[in-house]
Sequence to fold (165 residues):
Amino acid sequence: MSNTLVVADGIVVGMDYTLHTDDGQLIDSSEGEKPLAFLQGQGHIIPGLEQALYGMREGESKKVVVEPADAYGELDPDAFHKVPMEIFPEDLSLQVGMGLHLRDTNTGQPLQAFISEIMEDGVLLDFNHPLAGETLHFEVTIAYLREATEEEKAHGHVHDGSHQH
Ligand code: ZN
Fold:
């Protein structure tokens, strides 16, 4: 019996996908892994992609181009911060593009930053999401669709092998 469901709010979507940037760089892919499973309509994936999936059927494929505003946002010039060299361990060889895991000194929240520039008197850190400002090119295939259980609807997320409680 073929699945008559289409992608809609409250439907669990299993999606195979490949993600490239505008200049053709491969960013992410579900190839060789289980399809990405999420509850449609809950903002678990970027808005521009979620919107494009509505109405798709099991087995259907689509190319979706998502502008930065509907993906990880535009590059925010206020998200660059210069910090003194002294905050880094002396034995760490700093390189432009290097990713750093930091902690907000006020809130304790984990932060990710990338070294944007190494200067005479400090280091310029970029706190933008690595994909900010990027137009994203997705190739998606709907691997499966199913109704969410009442519990999944109540929790607002999928319960599968990786998330069960
Ligand atoms: Zn749950």
